[in-house]
């Protein structure tokens, strides 16, 4: 299902780490990804050329869009710009889990679609009616990750740790990450510069980060220009 845009939203991880599913996620590139990976590569070259590990965003898109990585009849949701998730309080769509949330009365609370369009001039004219446009969705994913990366000015132990913090922020927001780091800082033996084994212990985003970095990412590493 969908992880919320970090500007405003959050949702639980949906990937169950069963052995067969881990194997699938680690080795199989969803069919829909093959046509979109070159588009993502080109957008990263245009928008965020300094990003060293482009495979992270590909793995993130899989995590966001794959409802079930095993069942063949469900694989069509993986890397599908038409993927949707609807509940009484939330509507999410597409490759990056762009989400609109509602209160109990049905009134809109937060609109990730409106917010993400502010991050890149090319997205300004993106309409709700055209929300399933794959290239616009990919541009939105890059724009939001880029913004979060640049706003994370705190010191991290290394780039892998910063990438983990980035994914946690995408899932739950920079505000939540700040609170989790504050708890870590007050905890004996917890290093705020490290996600794994440290801030991770005070967050509910651990599975999301691990599935992207340690399970899904490796199979995409050969898909991008160096």
Q: What is shown here, in short?
A:
Helix content is 42%, strand content 7%.
Mean pLDDT metric: 89
* Radius of gyration over C-alpha positions, nearest whole angstrom: 17 Å
Helical fraction: 40-55%
Task: Please write the string of helix (H) and strand (E) elements.
Answer: HHHEEEEHHHHH
What portion of residues belong to β-strands? Answer: 5-15%
Number of helices: 8
Low-pLDDT residue intervals, each spanning 5 or more residues = 1-16
Give the biggest sheet. 4 strands, antiparallel
What does this structure look like?
With 226 residues, this protein is an alpha+beta fold. It has a domain at 19-150 and 207-223. It is 42% helix and 7% strand. It has helices spanning 19-27, 33-47, 55-65, 112-116, 134-151, 159-172, 174-185, 206-216, and strands at residues 84-86, 90-93, 98-102, 108-111. The chain has a four-stranded antiparallel β-sheet with strand order 1-2-3-4. The longest helix has 18 residues, at 134-151. The protein is globular and about 50 Å long.
């Amino acid at each position: 299902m969908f992880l919320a845009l970090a500007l405003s939203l959050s949702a639980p991880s949906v990937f169950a780490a069963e052995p067969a599913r881990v194997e699938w996620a680690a080795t199989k590139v969803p069919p829909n990804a093959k046509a979109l990976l070159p588009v993502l590569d080109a957008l990263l070259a245009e928008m965020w050329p300094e990003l060293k590990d482009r495979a992270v965003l590909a793995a993130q898109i899989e995590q966001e869009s794959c409802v079930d990585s095993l069942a063949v009849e469900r694989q069509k949701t993986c890397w599908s710009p038409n993927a949707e998730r609807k509940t009484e309080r939330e509507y999410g769509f597409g490759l990056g889990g762009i989400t609109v949330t509602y209160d109990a009365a049905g009134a809109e609370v937060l609109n990730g679609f409106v917010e993400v369009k502010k991050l890149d001039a090319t997205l300004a004219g993106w309409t709700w009616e055209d929300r399933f446009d794959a290239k616009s969705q990919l541009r939105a994913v890059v724009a939001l990750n880029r913004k979060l990366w640049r706003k994370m000015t705190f010191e991290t132990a290394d780039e892998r740790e910063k990438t983990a913090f980035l994914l946690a922020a995408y899932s739950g927001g920079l505000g939540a990450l700040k609170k989790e780091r504050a708890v870590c800082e007050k905890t004996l033996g917890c290093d705020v510069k490290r996600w794994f084994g440290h801030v991770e212990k005070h967050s509910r985003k651990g599975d999301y980060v691990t599935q992207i970095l340690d399970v899904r990412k490796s199979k995409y590493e050969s898909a991008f220009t160096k």
